[in-house]
Amino acid sequence: MAGTKNYCMKQIITFLFIIYCCLNITAQNNNQQVTEKETPQNVLNDFIIKSDFNSFEENKNQFISSEYNIDFRSTPDHFVTLSSKWNFNNHHAGEIYFRVEENNKWTNWKLIKHDHHLHEDAEFEVGQLEFLDKSISKFQFKIDGISELIADQIEFRFYAPILKAVKDDSSHHMMMQQSQSTCNCDQPSYKTRIQWGCPDGNSQHNCNPDYTIPTHLIVHHTAGVDNPPYDAVINAYWYDHVFNRGWCDLGYNFMIAPDGTFYEGRAGGNNVQGAHMCQNNYIRCMFNG
Predict the structure, then answer these.
(1) Does some domain include residue 268?
(2) How far are the Cα atoms of 84, 170, 234, 281 from residue 155, in angstroms, in the given order?
């Protein structure tokens, strides 16, 4: 077990070192065009709840929603994720909690933690992505600590990734164009977007990719624990970034699973500009787990 962890860590360090060596790279052709398209809804196994607070019950500075039945197009295979966003008139008022029915038993109330990785001028707030059991059947939420209704709308998105076997004959190695810097080391293999089953394939969601000349490498880490299969985990982050946060694609250029597997993130190839940070000349890498 220790040997496996050491091997994975060496792979991760090698991957980051390669990116660092290739920071001073020549930007790719910025005129690359991506045809606008809609992601087919039949490939998204999701369920959406939008509340305008007409069904709320007031009780001692608390609003409690009704119970919602969760109905997916297909029975979840692995897990279910919960994405959330809301628009409060007072951004510091109240806390949002939720509970779900799993295996015919209600869970305890759990706080939805704010995710502060949005621009300051964003018109809404988002919660951290939650991973739930695939047996989820019902959902309820409440807002504690408010004396009056101060929320315009809350939206919850439940997503159950569907993994399909896909053949991808493209190269699995990064082919970074190097200029002044040289890295005499093997380039690690990674899973392409086609291989991990991105519903948008090799395109961004109704966006054309922007390119930059990277000068920095930003490393993020997921807020919670991500369990396998990791292809489905990457798929879930893609869904949260695109449909909950309204981004063009995954915010990260690369993602690394706990088992050391590297994943292609944002579509567009080398030097594509990611999201999640306000600076435009950063490469972003996410550690899962």
Answers:
(1) yes
(2) 6, 38, 22, 32
Please list, in sequence order, all residues whose beta carbon lies within 8 angstroms of the beta carbon of residue 287, skipping any fewer than 6 positions away: 12, 219, 220, 221, 222, 255, 256
The SS3 of residue 4 is: helix
143 touches 94 (CB < 8 A): yes
Which residues, listed in sequence order, are joined to residue 143 by a DSSP beta bridge?
A: 63, 96
Q: What residues make up the domain containing 196? A: 1-24+168-289
The overall pTM is greater than 0.85: no
Answer whether 168's CB lies under 8 Å from 195's CB.
Answer: yes
249 exposure class (CB count in 10 Å sphere: 0-12, 13-18, 19+): buried
Tell me the C-alpha distance between 261 and 228, whole Å: 12
Q: Do 155 and 172 belong together in one domain?
A: no
Number of domains, the chain:
2
Residue 210 tokens, joined: 């922007």
- Residue ending a domain, among 112, 142, 159, is 159
Q: What CATH number does residue 228 fall under?
A: 3.40.80.10
3-state secondary structure 125-136: EEECCEEECCCE
Whether 91 and 110 map to the same domain: the answer is: yes
96-150 pLDDT, tens digit per residue, is 999 999 999 999 999 999 887 665 556 788 999 999 999 999 999 988 876 555 5
Tokens 């993130």 sit on residue: 265
Give the Cβ contact number of residue 168 at 10 Å: 13
